[in-house]
Recover the amino acids of this structure.
């Protein structure tokens, strides 16, 4: 029988824990909790950030980070890299100036570089 750590639910549990840890560092605990989702297979992307994707009962909105379900088959450090990449988009949405015409700009690149 497979160890839980080797199964997809085990990987989801580890990735969810990593999300909580990464919100503390390198983002200084400033990122608001969002929805982590494992959507179907995106042909070009391992992850996507959707700002203000979900309406809450209190009238607020919640961001979503959607990871391609194929990340569960990749080495964990690569998955963490994808997660940090999407969290940099969230940081820029909440604390920076999201780019108009491009997906990655200098501000995003600077945060990505500082994130290790």
């Amino acid at each position: 029988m497979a160890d839980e750590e080797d199964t997809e639910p085990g990987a989801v549990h580890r990735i969810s824990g990593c999300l909580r840890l990464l919100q503390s560092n390198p983002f200084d605990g400033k990122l608001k909790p969002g929805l982590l989702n494992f959507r179907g297979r995106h042909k070009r992307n391992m992850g996507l950030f959707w700002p203000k994707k979900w309406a809450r009962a209190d009238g607020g909105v919640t961001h979503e980070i959607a990871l391609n379900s194929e990340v569960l088959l990749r080495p964990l450090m690569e998955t963490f890299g994808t997660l940090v990449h999407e969290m940099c988009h969230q940081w820029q949405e909440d604390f920076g100036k999201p780019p108009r015409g491009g997906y990655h700009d200098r501000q995003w690149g600077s945060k990505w570089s500082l994130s290790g």
Notes: The beta strands are 35-39, 47-55, 61-68. The chain has one domain: 4-114. The first strand starts at residue 35 and ends at 39.
